[in-house]
């Protein structure tokens, strides 16, 4: 039979285990990554008076958007940079979850760190190249076209594949630890597959559809997972 002091100690221990401080508040950065990216894109679309140049666009189209709509382009840049910083923070949360996933956790954790690090870095590079296009380097045909190609490569296929690794690690770790509902974990794996296929664009242009498919589905999965992991005990 427990003494009064033992009961109090046991209750205090239970409260500590369920206290807000034991929750992974950093996981909420997964939600911020999606909100900031989508907000930046939506704001830029609302402000711009011309369409965003697609891959392979003529220099005149690139200049028309970036030089003609610098405010809209820079708003998108801010959203991307916030999203990149949030992804870096979210990567730590995914790696922590992966590290508790049992057998093979070390490899899964390494994959999450590598994928998340490259995803955040490539998105930041793409944002900075977009910002450069609104300045002097966006005035000349050759430099504008070159910057646009690099921007798309970094923020498209490279980011898509690395983000796919991060989201796939999240889905698998969530399933193994049962910290995420099975449908959400499976959605993460499906999103990861789309992201990992995005580099096919370099050899087959129609594969460009894998880029938005993997990106936006991954942001949705990460956003929902961030809320769930942020409100549960760690």
Task: Please give a structural write-up.
There is one protein chain. Helix content is 74%, strand content 0%. The protein is mainly alpha-helical and 234 residues long. The chain has one domain (26-229). Helix 4 runs antiparallel to helix 5, helix 6 (141-177) runs antiparallel to helix 7 (182-197) and helix 7 (182-197) runs antiparallel to helix 8 (210-231). The protein is elongated. Residues 1-22 have low confidence and may be disordered.
Radius of gyration: 21 Å
Strand content: under 5%
Q: Find the count of extended strands (DSSP E, 2+ residues).
A: 0
Question: Which whole number gives the mean pLDDT?
Answer: 89
Count of DSSP-assigned helices = 8
Helical content, roughly?
over 70%
Report how far apart the termini are. 31 Å
Overall geometry comes to elongated
Secondary-structure element series: HHHHHHHH
Tally of distinct domains: 1
What summary fits the major beta sheet? Answer: none
pLDDT below 50 for ≥5 consecutive residues: which ranges? 1-22
- Helix/strand/pairing category: mainly alpha
Outline of the structure:
The protein has helices at 4-17, 29-47, 59-66, 70-98, 105-133, 141-177, 182-197, 210-231. With 234 residues, the protein is mostly helical.
């Amino acid at each position: 039979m427990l003494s009064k002091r033992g009961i109090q100690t046991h209750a205090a221990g239970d409260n500590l285990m369920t206290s807000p401080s034991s929750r992974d508040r950093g996981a909420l950065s997964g939600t911020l990554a999606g909100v900031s990216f989508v907000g930046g894109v939506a704001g830029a679309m609302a402000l711009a008076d011309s369409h965003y140049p697609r891959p392979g666009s003529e220099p005149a189209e690139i200049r028309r958007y970036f030089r003609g709509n610098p405010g809209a382009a820079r708003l998108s840049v801010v959203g991307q940079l916030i999203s990149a910083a949030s992804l870096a923070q979210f990567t730590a949360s995914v790696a922590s979850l992966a590290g508790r996933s049992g057998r093979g956790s070390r490899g899964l954790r390494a994959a999450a760190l590598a994928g998340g690090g490259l995803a955040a870095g490539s998105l930041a590079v793409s944002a900075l190249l977009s910002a450069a296009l609104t300045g002097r380097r966006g005035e000349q045909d050759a430099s504008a076209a070159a910057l646009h190609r690099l921007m798309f490569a970094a923020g498209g296929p490279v980011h898509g594949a690395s983000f796919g690794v991060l989201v796939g690690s999240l889905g698998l770790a969530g399933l193994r630890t049962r910290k995420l509902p099975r449908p959400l974990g499976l959605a993460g794996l499906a999103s990861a597959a789309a992201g990992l296929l995005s580099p096919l664009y370099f050899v087959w242009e129609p594969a460009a559809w894998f880029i938005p498919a993997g990106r936006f589905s991954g942001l949705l999965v990460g956003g929902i997972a961030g809320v769930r992991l942020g409100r549960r005990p760690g």
